[in-house]
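User: My collaborator sent over this chain with a note saying "see what the structure looks like." That's all I know about it. Can you take a look?
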Amino acid sequence: MTSPFTPLYVFTAAICLRIGLLIYGILQDQYAALPYTDIDYFVFTDAARYAHNGQSPYLRETYRYTPLLAWVLIPTAWGGIFWFSFGKVLFATADVLAGWLIIKVLTSPAGGAMAMERALKYASIWLLNPMVTIISTRGSSEGLLGVMVIALLWAALEQRVLLAGLLLGLAVHFKIYPFVYGVSLLWYLALPFIPSSDRSIRKSWFNRIFTFFDRPRITLLVSSLATFMALNITMYNLYGQPFLQHTYLHHLARIDHRHNFSPYNALLHLTSASPESTSSLRFESLAFIPQLLLSAVLIPLVLAKKDLAGAMLCQTWAFVGFNKVVTSQVLPPYYF
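Assistant: Without extra context I'll predict from the sequence alone. Here is the result:
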């Protein structure tokens, strides 16, 4: 009997599942009292409409994302149900592409050289996962970031350092939290230290730090920083302070106690009840300390050299688990 875990069967099922939910979503939006489309998708498409008209996407209240997202979704402003659904199709396509990259990672020598059938079984956890599929077809943009991160992992494992740097810079610009993966990448690229009893060969701490930044690491740092800064400078020149405020600064002091699964939810709720506080050490700013200590320092140092993919997974768990705001859009990488 032919195994169902072949590329043809798995990807056909994944694509059909998404097409079916896209069609169902259109029908539910038209005939049901409760819409299928995520409220955030209306924010995206409204911002895209402003961008289409040559205006700032930040004229749309609650748009807290890079202008790149609004630019990519400009076709949604062309009118009609088909073009309105363009973003959902794009996000669902990104889901499928992420599944294909998962298989590439698992079957690569650096990723374990897993057999194709077994890799397809693991990839099916993503490709055929109803929660992942529903979230993307409702209009969440997390699929775009997901495909960037998986592509970043694949590029790093394949030692395509320049490509990894470009993807890291793009991902951090798109949504700032992937910067934590940069620490794991730098540590993963480290050459093993070979101890020597010859004092003339032994290196001082200064020399070790100096030699740590070899060509691959410098390439990663320069390419990622250059990509990140080039995108930010371009967007700042186009949209000014609203770009910085809504894309980055807003999240530093964000208080969102609604539809929030964060362990800090109750404290955020209490903090929101007294917004007049003038203390410089407000809770919403201090909440980043345990989150960053785990995801950007401890986990990379312990796991990155042993298992880069595992380290990035644990970083994601730690970052999401200790985040101030945990909504359904960020649950797929946390649970799946």
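A starting point for your reply to your collaborator: The CA atoms of residues 251 and 302 lie 28 Å apart.
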